[in-house]
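Last lecture ended with a question: if I hand you only a sequence, what can you say about the shape of the protein? Today we answer it with a concrete record. The protein is Nephrocystin 3-like N-terminal domain-containing protein. Below, first the input exactly as provided, then the predicted structure, then a couple of comments.
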Amino acid sequence: MNKPRGLFWIKGNPGTGKSVLMKFAVDMMSRRKSGELVVSFFIHGRGVALQKSPLGLYRALLNSMLRSFPVYLKELTGRFKDREERYGSYERSNGWRWTDKELETFLSEVLSKGTKSQPVVIFVDALDECGADEAKRLLTYFQNIMSDVESGEALVKICFSSRHYPILGQETMSKLYVEEKNDGDIRLVIQNRLKEIQPPKKREKIETEILLKAHGGFQWAMLMIDMVHDGNTTGARTQSLLRNISTIPDGLDELYAVILSGVTKAEEQLMTKLFRWVLFTERPLSTQELREALATDQDMTCTTVEELRNHDNYSDSLLQFEIHVRHISRGLVEFHTRDVYELYELDGEDWNREAQFVHQSAADFVLERFLSLPDHGSTYKNPIGTGHYEISRSCLRYITLTEILNSGHLSRGQLSIRFPLMPYGVAFVLHHIRAVEKQEIPQTDLLALIQWDRPQRFRLLAAIWRMMDPDRVYAPVGWPFEEVSPLHVLVGFGSTSSLDVFLQKDVTQLVARDSYGNTPLLVALRENFQDLALLLLNRSIAWQAEDEDFGASVLQIGAGVEKRDYLVHVNAENDDGETPLGIAVSVRSDKAIQHLIDAGADVKNEKGLLFHAVDSRNKVLLSRLIQKGANLDGAVFFAVKSLSRIDHDDDDSLHELLSDLLEAGANTSKYVSLHQEYEDESDDDDNPYAENYSGDEEAIIVASRKGMTQLVSLLLSHGSSAAAQGEYGVFPLFAAVMNNHLETVKVLLSAAPEAVRLTAVHGDTALDVVSDNHSFDIALHLIQQGEEPDIPLRLLFIAIDENKLELVKAILHADESLMKRADETGENLFEEAVRGGRHEMAELLLGMGEVDINPLNAIGQSAFWSTLVRADIKMARLLIDTGAVDVNENWDGRTPLWWAIQEGNEDLVKLLLDTGEVDIYEKDEDGQPTFWWAFEKGVDLVIETFLASDKSVLNKKDRSGRTLISQAAFRGNAELFKRLLATVRADTEVIDYYGSTLLSLAVHGGNDSIIQLLLDRTKFDINVKDLYGRTPLWWAAFKGYKAAAKLLLNTGQADIETKDNCGQTPLSVAQGGVTDILLDYIGRNTGWME
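The predicted structure:
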């Protein structure tokens, strides 16, 4: 749990302390204050549905987490409000509900995406108590979450616990086996619980014996401790206690069997009754409720609460009752304090204590072993059915006690305080009756139990029931149907067995209506009691057939007969205008729907039925509706929408239904009042460009948007228009193009080539959309197959930029005027191709007509110059080959050749020189000729070209009066100097405009090899002065060039005393070591040193 993410599994046998360990872990992690959000859920196998189901788990975890994730809280709250508006209150009976899948997906998203900055630690206890299948599903769910968490580096840790069975495998997961680690804890508990037993030796022997047999079983040890205490209290000897411990089996089931053995018949019956109430109630009962329940009996003769509370099982105080229950159950039932409970009276008695089995293993034993014994059941060999039967009958007996029936003047709170079993009885008696029905136990006593045959008492009961359940949360609307018909009551009970026995051939009861206008059939369908509805329908159909057969035979012999219509209730409407068929459709009861149609239900205006037939792919039902003349409006659209929600277009059954509908002449428009239960929340995108846009009103637009080509063809063949336009002007071709469905585009364009010119919102055409989507295959098809398409210039530029040759060719063939158009920056098509390095595209454009290849861009640069800058030789050659470019074009004071030389790109230099048109003598903005830069950069091609020039070219002077050889000397470029000398055409006696000879410039350059070459030529006068009166030696001294000074002095001709125009001699200006060289020279040649 110290890692940032991961799964941890705590496994153990029943009763080894898994839940205790989990509670401890939750508490410790919560106290760490590490910034982690710690949430937990303890699955309760004996609790209500939300306490033992994945749905309850997801709801609890999200409830605990979402305050720390406000973005997700807002999203879920928004969903809730939307559902409330669409489907009504969440709280109402049969209202909308969160689904497992929806909350499971939402929780996954929160954990995998929302926890990167807020770590979450989740504890889930007793995974096995939600059932084998659900436990395995939850384990897989946790593993999938963790996979997403790890890949997204979210911060989630999940710790869960379970028994070894039914969740097997997954041995690679980090885990802990509790029974292998808890011996020390069991020892501490045993020592603490037995510390009062004296003497110490006796206690130590008992402790050791229990620990030896516990085998990691905490629950077994605790039960043994209780047995030891009981024995010690009655004075049992040490040996007797040790013998009992040693002889009792070390398995929990065997221990439970020992604990519950040796009781009297009366005790056993009371024990059985207690266990049923604790095991089969829909929620744990409070102490107050259970005290009333144990005093009540399914066969009791008492009729008043006073008589009930004089029962031997009724304790005077709640504390005494808890002791009594512990005694009856032999310690297997205990009372816990509730976290949440209902307060019926301010400052009144708390109802905060509830009865539970001491452990899930005890509940399992009671159900599977104890109550399954023949002596503990009833005439029905079904412990579950028998348990629900006893509870339901006891509740009905209790509710009809005289004092309760006469308390109609009391409030709900007052009734609950005076008669504690009333809240549970009213809330869950119908549940228990239906549970009995599921176990196929006959219930022919229900009308008598509810006192239907005693109208006055039944009216009192109805008033009490309305007070206790005013919103009919736990019972059908109209319950308990006083002054209506017994059929309503039996249907409200949900008892098929009772209705089957009672149902008589009487049309009066079939058409009887409650205060809401509901017949028994309507009630059965509203409550989704399909078996009851089918029973009523089948019986009605049979009676009608009998009467018609009888009437026909009587008619044959000429006798008169009164004709009864036993099927009149098939089309009955309640006060809300609901019909049996409409309700059957809303609850999706297929069998009831078929039987209602068989019985003559009117299908013409049941729009929901039509949608149901499509939604359930019921071809037979749809055929019957078509035959009976049902209104088919909206069915095609709904079918297409249904297909659009799946990932594939191969639902053959739905395609067949569509064909049948179209053949029957159904329209293709959306039905405005589409039933909410058939809407899909995935269709909530309000972006008209989205694939799941919800605003389409034509089937062909929906099909086109999803790329269902086969379906589009089918719709077109039955008259749908390929040019139909819906909201925002969206038309089929536009919808198909938006979502890149090429095959669908082909079909639509074949049907309506002019649709390529249609415009949708903001005047966009299909070609505008492909420009945005870069759907080039679709664009090509639209241009080639469309009728006079209006092609956006932007598409052409994009196609050029993406090098889509065929598309560009098709565009320009379709509209030649685009060739001369420029984009918003002023750039033309050819420039776009050139600047993008699209060689084939440039060739294509050049071959398509007149192209301006020399326009300047925003920085004054031509297309040719842009190829030079990008060193695109191939494109440069292509441009040069057109003969339309100036290879000496000046840009920013530079020529193409200058640029090629500066970049050292010999391929480009060669390309330019090969034209025979470049001027290597062209000067740059500094007045430097191009060829000089070639010598500087070592570009041989230019150098060789220059050296091959005649004498006049070689000795051409620059603005300083220097030739190339002068510059070579001045810059100290020995290689160039030598190559120029080797031509024998270079003028070595050249003097620049400053009076500098080649030797003087060579001294400036400081290259000894050039100086030596010049000195080797005898014609040089080394004392020639420049315009400033300075000789080569003066400059060597001034610059501190020792080697140059030595070379000059070694000739023996250098005048060391010469002065410049300012009177300075070489010695007076000498720098560095040149001074010593001059002094040494003077000393050796004048004797001055001596």
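Comments.
1. The first strand starts at residue 6 and ends at 11.
2. The first helix runs from residue 18 to 31.
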